[in-house]
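I'd like us to work through together how a protein chain folds, taking it slowly. To get us started, please write out a protein record for me. Go ahead whenever you are ready, and we will take it from there:
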Amino acid sequence: MVREEDLDVVLVPLGLAVVAGYHLWLLYAILRHPTRTVVGLNALARKRWVAVIMANTEKNGVLAVQTLRNNIMASTVLATTAITLASVISVFIGATAGRSPTSPSSSSSSSTSPMLVYGSKTGQVFAVKYLAISLCFMLAFVCNVQAIRLYAHASFLLGLPPEEGAAEDFAAYVARTVNRDSHAWSLGLRAFYVSLALFMWTFGPIPMLACSVLMCALLYFLDTTRDYAKGIQHMHREMSAQKDSTV
């Protein structure tokens, strides 16, 4: 029988293993079967979008800039939220670090708040919880800042006319840059998802494990597709056929 104080050692690594295992499977599916995942289909759609935009930059240039600007604004909001939450947690840890569990100011709260937690209630464990959440928010901040940088670079590239004889290679480079933007933004969003499970850890390892399993189940339906987006696949095959015919 596992003691209450030892539940964090057993259930928390199990919950993190569930999240890590799901994302490793998702990475394998994206690399091996991209048309069966939403991430892979979106990458093909963005590649098609870049080809259409660069086919007539004078006509579609404003649309491209507006689209990338909307993505930059979304990344800015997420980056600001992440760094703000990380700062709030840091201030909270600094304000409570010097309090002793036996001090009069904390004796009244320690008799009520730990009742919501089924697991280890030591100060070191709570410090690890807040540190893990802060690291997730910092990772989300870094990923979204990277997305902002890449989106700004992509908007610059989309405004450049391709050189003669290298238009196809240049369009492929721009498409890879746009896809890197989206991947960085997706990683930042995944960090927010993981921080939700870690936040549930503050109420105990059992809510954290339940949240991890439920989150992975919901993400499975959001990350996969059953109809395989036949329209996008058809466009991708047409692009490949046109590329082979021009060679």
